[in-house]
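User: What would this chain look like folded?
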Amino acid sequence: MLFFMARSLYALVDKNKQYDDFKICNLVGIALRKPEKAKGDTVATVYPNPANEMATLDYSLPKDSKAEFIIRTTTNQQILNKPLRAGDSKYSFSTADLKPSVYFYELRSNGELIANGKLIIIR
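Assistant: Here's the prediction, encoded as structure tokens.
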């Protein structure tokens, strides 16, 4: 582990050095977890995060989806439930009424959770 930390620090100093940790670790028998891809061809991102007055959900859904975007507080209180249209699109929403805090968002398609994450509101 210390070896990887030292390499990452060296990479900050010398921009010409790049390391392929997945290739190196697999050679010595260390299995690293790769990030999971979204189910099917679904992609969802909320930006900017942290947000101040406005945020945008950038999403891609299968053409036959009936989707909804949900925002919840840390106590699981639902504060937004917006139906979305299928296909590639964006949905901008106001965060002006939200108190500075951490919120959780979900993107559901046909009732099934397909993407989720945190949204941080700052002032």
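Residues 2-13 form the longest helix (12 residues). If you want, I can go into more detail on any region.
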